[in-house]
Specification:
The protein is of the alpha+beta class. Helices cover 30% and strands 34% of the residues.
Length: 148
């Protein structure tokens, strides 16, 4: 069983949850929830095609096909008593400037986790492991450049 650390402000942490205890009751936020919040925020940034490495995206496609989804895919969090560090693996759409996407993802994740979960975000590390090139491998867009 994971050890619990109680703090003066009523917050307790274990290895997988953040708990806030008040006179009105207890709130427990699981680390997977923090990862999902970060994943949703990252996916909403223009230029982000997907989250996760190749294997994670392959399993994600299978999950999507059966009606399930992993919103925390490609996201790893380390949650402390009042702070969290987030590691993301993303795929960026071509020709979006990658540094601009990383900056926007960092800001979106920080805002979402701070506002929704109530934890201070100490860092958001981003690994861009692929680029999505629209039109390659997919149906050709015949609306432009075709002589009729």
């Amino acid at each position: 069983m994971a050890s619990t650390t109680n703090r003066v402000d009523g917050t307790a942490t274990t290895g997988t949850t953040t708990t806030q205890v008040t006179t009105k009751g207890r709130t427990i936020i699981d680390d997977t929830v923090v990862a999902k919040v970060a994943g949703i925020a990252a996916r909403d940034v223009p230029g982000v095609f997907a989250l996760g490495g190749n294997a994670a995206r392959a399993f994600g496609a299978i999950r999507d096909a059966i009606g399930s989804s992993a919103l925390g895919q490609g996201v790893r969090v380390e949650v402390g008593e009042t702070q969290v560090a987030v590691d993301l693996t993303i795929v960026v759409d071509y020709p979006t400037p990658m540094m601009d996407v990383a900056t926007a993802v960092r800001a979106a994740v920080t805002t979402a986790v701070t506002e929704l979960v109530g934890l201070e975000v100490t860092e958001v590390n981003i690994a861009i492991n692929d680029v999505n090139i629209p039109g390659l491998g997919g149906p050709a867009d015949e609306s432009e450049g075709r002589v009729r």
